[in-house]
Amino acid sequence: MKVLVTGAAGSIGRVLLPGLTDRGHQVAGLDLVPAPEGHDGPWHNVDCTDPDAVLAVFEAERPDGVVHLAGIPEEASLAAELGSHVVTTAALLEAMLAHGVGRIVYASSNHAVGRTPRSEHLGADARPRPDTFYGVAKVSAEALLSLYADRFGLDAVACRIGSFLEQPETVRNLSTWLSHDDCVRMVEASLTAPAPGFHVLYGISANSRAWWDLEPGREIGYDPQDDAEQWADRIATRPEDEAEGAHVGGPFAGPQFHRS
Ligand code: 15L
After folding, report:
1. Closest residue CA from atom 1 of ligand 1
2. Which of 44, 78, 177, 255 has its CA 20 to 30 A from that of 241?
3. What fold, for 2-253?
């Protein structure tokens, strides 16, 4: 499959470029910054908030699918978040329609439901409950995907990613970790599942302490293999662990809320 990856120089992009290539896909990267070392496929220095520039990339690449990772990965002003996550998603969806591209995999986030209190089990049908403007933008981008799936029949998989890290670093991460290899598995399944329509899944590994539903991922063929538990005895407890465990969004559900 020919895949266009946005935000391809970011932390997830750097893992996905070789990961998808190793699995036989042709990968074109797009980012504001130069290609990471080792990527010798096509590359576009483009701002995804610019619909004309995005369209030109589609004209050049003619991808079969899009993986949209670009965006501010943390809390910022509402205007910055909406531009970075929602305007970019709209530009990509319009370019997809113009070029008959039927599949987008979106790097959504657990922060779309980050203010949901801790429970036994978090389903993908939990109501939108963002913890920050970052989370609001993720909810809004998911809503755009749903709109375009319903109106135009696009397949759009929103992966509400947990904590994408080489290895878990905190007690919260023992529940929320997404390993590098599982991330590649998740994105490939989301790109290739037959006709998922609009689909939301939680992007975490098969963590023994997981409380976010893994079934929506399994329904489309994402079968996580890693478990954060193997690091449990190396993770020191900290006073903030209890507060971080109280909501889905951990520290984002606490004080780090941008209000100018
Ligand atoms: C995210 O969506 C953020 O981009 C990342 O910085 C982490 O905070 C992660 O979620 C998480 O919840 O651990």
Report:
1. 109
2. 78
3. Rossmann fold (3.40.50)
